[in-house]
Amino acid sequence: MTLDRDAAAFIARARGRLEKADLHPRLRQVGRVEEVGDGVAHVSGLPKTRLDELLRFDDGTLGLAIRIGETELGCILLSEGAGIRAGGAVEGTGDIARVPVGPGLLGRVVSPIGAPLDGGAPIEAERNDPVERPAPGIVERELVTEPLLTGITVIDAMIPLGRGQRQLIIGDRKTGKTTLAIDTIINQRDSDVICIYAAIGQKASTVARVVDAVRRHGAMERCVFVVGSADASPGAQWLTPYAACSIAEYFRDRGQHALLILDDLTKHAITYRQLSLLLRNPPGREAYPGDVFYLHARLLERAAKLSDANGGGSLTALPIAETQAGNLTAFIPTNLISITDGQVYLEPKLFYEGQKPAVNVGMSVSRVGGKTQAKAIKSLADSLKLDYAQFLELEVFTRFGSMVDERTEKKIAHGRRLRSILAQPEYAPLPLSLQVTLLLAVAEGCLDDLPLSVMPDFRKRLAERLPQELPRAAQAIDETGALSEEVRGQLLTLIRDCLSGLAPEADD
Ligand SMILES: Nc1ncnc2c1ncn2[C@@H]1O[C@H](COP(=O)(O)OP(=O)(O)OP(=O)(O)O)[C@@H](O)[C@H]1O
Ligand SMILES: [Mg+2]
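Above are the sequence and the magnesium ion SMILES. Below is the predicted complex in structure-token form.
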């Protein structure tokens, strides 16, 4: 009796499964690996594969088809691919590369395909987004109207950034490019901006230094690190900025504000050149393939300020580029300069002279950020910019030892004080209120008689006393960006207080 019942239940279950089973014939295209090595593979027998399609090799390695030929296609491997042999099988997946996105990534260090690199638990993703996505169209965008404060006085005052802008950080090696980006990330610890840092082709130790600096200065939980370091496969390095951009877009599309740092795109272009040559694409200028401009244009175009109808989110991009011997007219730097809305040029000469951050103000520009600059700092910076440019010229002139009149001497003294205010140690971004107070002190000429050697003491005193003695005024500037006459008076009194005792004639 029970046996019968069991048998009947079994038959019913089996029938149910059979009905659900898909018994239609399925077409599986299996290609063949013709050649493999140096992070690329040539594959034949997959005529239906589309550009950028993800392929799976028989050892589980993933590859991306980036060159489609008549009989063969060229594919870049996203991992080592040590198990791939010529003659092995390869299959198209019908999908493109995807990366996990979502708030679960905050505070994490991940590879461009979303594998954790910080030894933590697997990533809890909200969904998997394609790494290549079309940029928002014109109608979906809004003008850049909100400021993005870096906390670096020379940038916030003279080359201001707006949310949704693309600003290139460019300079020779070891001129403080990465440091500038880290300072900007640290400055977002109290803001609503989420930072995504993409490390492309860098040494693992350099990446560790960046992560450590951000962790120590308390901004880690607002950050995501996407790392394709120098020891990763060239394919993974190539994918890194696109994956990081998709992670940032998730926040942009939710109406939040994201800051994407791409460190650096010169290495990215070099990796692409290497892959391209291995895939036998025809080389062009400087041996880069013909589509190297498109490589970065399609990436940076995804930075945008969205209109209110689309959530009002923003994605600001800070790509970094390295120059050789200050040559801004090389192929990749000129491409990037023409794609972005401005550049911050870091000059080795200034760096070696001890002027850090070594921003060359004359050769740096921000084409859209000016409109977003807070009124408090704009009114001061406008006149200071002119003073500074004049000072730099005069200083060169007086190096020849020529006698100068008193007026010129005063201008030079004034310029030197301004230059000293624009210098800033690493990992110490300043709040807007302190920047405004420092610039006010210079603009009013309060510091002109102060010996340069006691300048650090003055800055230290001011940084301590401003939030203590004028908390309301400081808060008002930080929140509204405006400087009322009353607050201005209060700040000047504080400046004079701080100066007293530093230099005998400083407080007149
Ligand atoms: N504002 C600063 N104050 C003091 N030191 C700084 C400052 N900016 C950068 N440095 C120092 O200069 C060195 C080079 O900086 P950084 O690594 O940021 O340069 P980089 O241009 O990114 O170099 P690379 O070409 O290796 O990427 C670092 O040791 C850093 O500590
Ligand atoms: Mg660097």
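Residues 171, 173-179, 322, 356-357, 424-426 surround adenosine-5'-triphosphate (ligand 1) (CB under 6 Å).
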